[in-house]
Amino acid sequence: MQHKPVKAVVFDLDGTLYLSGRPYPGAVDTVKRVAERVPVYYLSNNTSKSPVFYENRLHVMGLPLRDDSIISALYLSLDAIHEKGIKNVFFFANPEVYEWFAAQDPSLNLNPSVEETELVLVAYHNSFDYRELCELSFRVQRGIPFWVTHTDFVCPDANGPVPDIGSFMALLKTAYGVEPERSFGKPNPAMLAGVLKHYAPEEILFVGDRLYTDFELAKRAGCRFVLPLCGETKREDVDKLDVKPECIVEYVRDIDFDAFLK
Ligand SMILES: [Mg+2]
């Protein structure tokens, strides 16, 4: 099949460009070369850090950035809160993310009492203590609407995958039988809305290491997709798929971008 040239490239971060903040071999130079030709975006489901943190991290690594390069489920969550006109949101998040979120809209009350709480929003909080988990529990068990930024079961780590929001959801389902009403992150194609304003789906190349989030998003959005095997997915996982990624590589540096961008 003859494809149109790709006009924008979206990279996943953890497991695609780096692991635990350490870039994979050749990843930074490859992204720099791509960014000289087309706009590059970074799309992570990881809401344990704010977009500002990611801007700093990627800048320090030497990855090219524009104002709209970082795509985060935190922006979509905030938009949805605004659309609903909700003010009292119990926000379960790391302190840095909590502060970033509060600064985006100082009119939000992010630590309402149980009675005041209109909505519970769960980000990937990886520094909570049991008391905070109880505060979350007191709210969801009452049937207060409950949203999550994303539903990944685990997050990659150099020592092995660690529990992410999907695992927290299983905990709350076991305890109270509750499930979130909404999730914003991949594979929700709304994550690409900002990029799709400028480009047709088939002009966007998505590069990500996870099948149930990255590949699924690309399929739902109608984007082209490359799977690097340096992260979560193993070749035998791909063998089991009916619909396979267009291109599979070991590392991002192995992608023939000339073939996609010409
Ligand atoms: Mg990943």
Provide an overview of this structure.
With 262 residues, the protein is α/β, with parallel strands linked by helices. It folds into two domains: 8-45 and 186-261, 3-Layer(aba) Sandwich (Rossmann fold); 74-183, Rossmann fold. The chain has ten helices and 14 strands. It has helices spanning 27-35, 51-61, 73-84, 95-104, 130-140, 165-176, 193-196, 211-221, 235-239, 257-261; strands spanning 8-11, 18-19, 22-23, 40-44, 70-72, 89-92, 119-122, 146-148, 154-155, 162-163, 182-183, 204-207, 224-228, 247-249. The strands form four sheets. The protein has a six-stranded parallel β-sheet, with helices on both faces. It is globular. The chain starts with 7 loop residues before the first strand and ends with a helix. The mean pLDDT is 96. The structure holds magnesium ion (MG). Magnesium ion is lined by residues 12, 14-16, 208-210, 231.
